[in-house]
Amino acid sequence: MIxxxxxxxxxxxxxxRLAEQGKAVHLxxxxxxxxxxxxxxxxKTTGQYCDNGPHLMIGAYSATRRLLEDCHAxxxxxxxxxxxxxxxDAERGHFQLRTVPWLPFPLALMLGLIRLPAHQxxxxxxxxxxxxxxxxxxxxxxxxxxxxxxxxxxxxQDMLEPLCLxxxxxxxxxxxxxxxxxxxxxxxxxxxxxxLGWFRLPLxxxxxxxxxxxxxxxxxxxxxxxxxxxxxxxASGIQLNAGDMKFQHLIVTTPIWxxxxxxxxxxxxxxxxxRPITNLHLWYDEPVNxxxxxxxxxxxxxxxxxxxxxxxxxxxDEHSDLQHIAIVIxxxxxxxxxxGWMDVVTRELAEISGxxxxxxxxxxxxxxxxxxxxxxxxxxxxxxxxxxxxxDASEWPQPGELPATIEAAVRRGEQAARMCIMSQK
Length: 425
Ligand SMILES: Cc1cc2nc3c(=O)[nH]c(=O)nc-3n(C[C@H](O)[C@H](O)[C@H](O)COP(=O)(O)OP(=O)(O)OC[C@H]3O[C@@H](n4cnc5c(N)ncnc54)[C@H](O)[C@@H]3O)c2cc1C
What we know:
The protein is an alpha/beta fold. The chain has three domains: 2-38 and 200-272 and 376-424, FAD/NAD(P)-binding domain (3-Layer(bba) Sandwich), CATH 3.50.50; 107-190, no CATH class; 274-374, CATH 3.90.660.20. It is built from 13 helices and 20 strands. It has helices at 9-20, 62-70, 107-114, 121-132, 142-146, 153-168, 177-187, 191-194, 203-217, 256-263, 312-315, 341-352, 406-424; strands at residues 2-5, 25-28, 40-43, 48-51, 56-58, 77-79, 84-89, 93-98, 196-199, 221-223, 231-234, 237-240, 246-247, 249-252, 274-284, 298-301, 308-311, 323-330, 363-374, 390-392. The strands form five sheets. It has a seven-stranded mixed beta sheet with strand order 8-7-16-17-18-15-19, with helices on both faces. Strands 10-2-1-14-20 form a five-stranded parallel beta sheet. Strand 1 (2-5), helix 1 and strand 2 (25-28) form a beta-alpha-beta unit. The chain is globular, with a radius of gyration of 22 Å. The protein starts with a strand and ends with a helix. The protein binds flavin-adenine dinucleotide. Flavin-adenine dinucleotide (FAD) is lined by residues 5-11, 28-31, 36-38, 52-53, 55-57, 227-228, 253-255, 258, 262, 277, 279, 369, 372-373, 395, 404-407, 409.
C-alpha cells in the first residue's frame, strides 16, 4: 500500500498514475476539499464559484494536457490556435503580440514582434541573439543574462518581463536565468507550445473534480480533512498519525515546509523562498470590455500595477447579470499593505476598457496567496538522505527546471509515481 500526502494537482496525479499500475493507494488531504492551490470558493454574494486565482497555461504543458485527456476533461480548457496576447499601455493603447500562423517558429514570433507598435526590426534581431545565447553561468539572474545582449527595453517590457513574471512569479533581477531559458525553449518551440490556454469552468470543476473522479474509479481511497502530522516506521511498514494502516511507501506532495514536519527530514519554512500573488475579483452590473480587438478574454498590462486582467465571465461563458473581472498582481511588490492599490487597479481597468466614467463594482473580493509559489532556487539539503520508502514530491524547483506551475505539479506527481513503482520492482 502507498500513502500519498496532499490532495493538490501533484498528489492527485501521483495517485492516479500509481492506481493505473494496479497499486493500492490512499490519499490524505488536510483541507476539507481537494485542490490545494488550484481551488475554487463559493462566493455567497454573487452565488458564483470563484477561483483563488485565474490559472493561465501554455500549450507546452504537455503532461497536463495528457492528464486532462486521460480524465476526460480536455474540453474544460480553451486553447488558442495561435499565440495571441492582448496588451495595453497608457501611450500605445491596445495592441497584440500575435504569431504569424503561416510561418514556422521562430520566424512566426519574430514577425509578430516586428508588428508590435514601436518595435520594428530591433526586437526581431534581439530575439535571434537571444535564441543563440545558450551559455549562462551558475547563479545568473535573467537580468544579468540579458544584459550583454543589449535587448531593446521595449522587448523586455512587452514580452520578456511579462513572461518572466507570469511563469516564474518573480522579476528578472532575481529570477534564475537557467529556468527562464527553459521556459523560453519550451514555450517558443512551435505554434502549439506557444499558444495560451484557460479553464472554461472554475478550477474545482474543470480540473480537480475530473481528477478526483478518475482516482475514485481506479480505486484510490481519498481521505479529506485528514492532516498528517508525523510518521512512524517499523519492520511492518510506515504508520501515519491517521489510523492503523501500514504503508510501504510515502509520497509527500504538501508544501515543502509541511513535508519537513511530516517526515522530520525536510526543510523548514524559513529555508525556502516564496512569492505572493494577489487577486482582485470584481463584479459589475454593467458590461466591462477588456477591449482586445480579437475578443480574447484576457490582457497583459504594461507599466500598470495590475499585470493581468481576466474577463472571467467570457472565459467561462457565465450566464449571469454580473460581469466578473479578475486582476492579478504577480510577485506582489506591495504585498497588499497599501490600501490604495485597489483604486489604482480599478482605474487602470476603466482606462483599458475605455469607460468614460469610473467603474463601480457591485462586489469585490481580494484573495492573496502569501506563499503562492516556491521560487526556483538551489537546494541546500541533501535529498539522498531520504530513506527509500519516502518520495518527496513537494514543490521546490531547481534553477534550470520548469518553475512552479500546474505543469510542474503534474510532472512531479508522475515522476514520484514512477520512482515508487521502480523501487517496488
Ligand atoms: C494565486 C495563484 C495563481 C497561480 N497561477 C498559475 C498559473 O496561472 N499557471 C500555472 O501553471 N500555475 C499557477 N499557479 C501555481 C500552481 O497553482 C501550483 O504550482 C500548483 O497548484 C501546485 O500544486 P501542488 O499539488 O504541488 O501543491 P498544492 O496545490 O499546494 O497542494 C498541496 C496540498 O497538500 C495539502 N497539505 C498540506 N499539509 C498537509 C498535511 N500535513 N497533511 C495532508 N495534506 C496536507 C494542502 O492542503 C494542499 O491541498 C498559481 C498559484 C497560485 C496560488
